[in-house]
TrEMBL record:
This is ABC-2 type transport system permease protein. One of its GO terms (molecular function) is ABC-type transporter activity. GO terms for cellular component: plasma membrane. Keywords: Membrane, Transmembrane, Transmembrane helix. It holds the Pfam family ABC2_membrane_2.
Amino acid sequence: MRMRQWLVLYRKEQLELLRSYKLLWVPLVFILYGAMQPVMSYFLPDIIAHAGNLPPGAVITIPKPTASEVMAQTLQQFNTIGILILSLSVMGIISAERSSGLTSMILVKPISYLSFVTAKWAAMAVLVLIAFAGGFGGALYYTTALFDAVGWQHSLSAYLLFSLWLCLAGSLTLFFSSWLRSGAAAAACALGVAALLALTSSAFPDALAYSPGVLPHLAYSQYDAAAGDNHTLAVVAITLVSMLALLAAASAVLRKRPSLDAI
């Protein structure tokens, strides 16, 4: 019975993604952004040469990056713009329904709060995986065409690790969306926490070696042959536990305050 309810809720979320065209425009933005980095890296010397403001006879020599460097740079770009796009696309995943009163109407029925939250999370995760697969695939295609082939094992590991990081960012957005009235505030808080995790992990690499904020660096390092393992499995496990905790916390918030009238 509960599984049937969960599937109904999940189909509702998928239908909402289709109606809002998020399953179309979010992957398209990721694809365009993913293809942009290798193309810009390839044509950067020509762009600078034709930009003007250079004295006659001036020669600018820019070393050509390797394919692995281009892919690592692309992931770094996704760590900023990609998370921003994701947070903005799902910022009202709960708060918008609470504002319209739809959440309280749904939860009046014998529906588990956890099922309600996890159905939304699953739809968000599908959106993340599809969008990032398109963006990462576009980057990989143009990197291979313009530079050189990249090992598929390294690319698969980088994709999975960075997808997990994006799912964590989405989980943060979902949690804050269940807590705050404003979807924009939820997105801002999620972006702030994600940035704080990444910055503190970079500033204190030894003390925070197992922090989920290490995930972007682990994804970049898949293209660095000299990089070590850096506790990858432990970081992945802690990230999964953190996401489960965020979902449980979001369910608890909704159980306590299912509507804006209760806030």
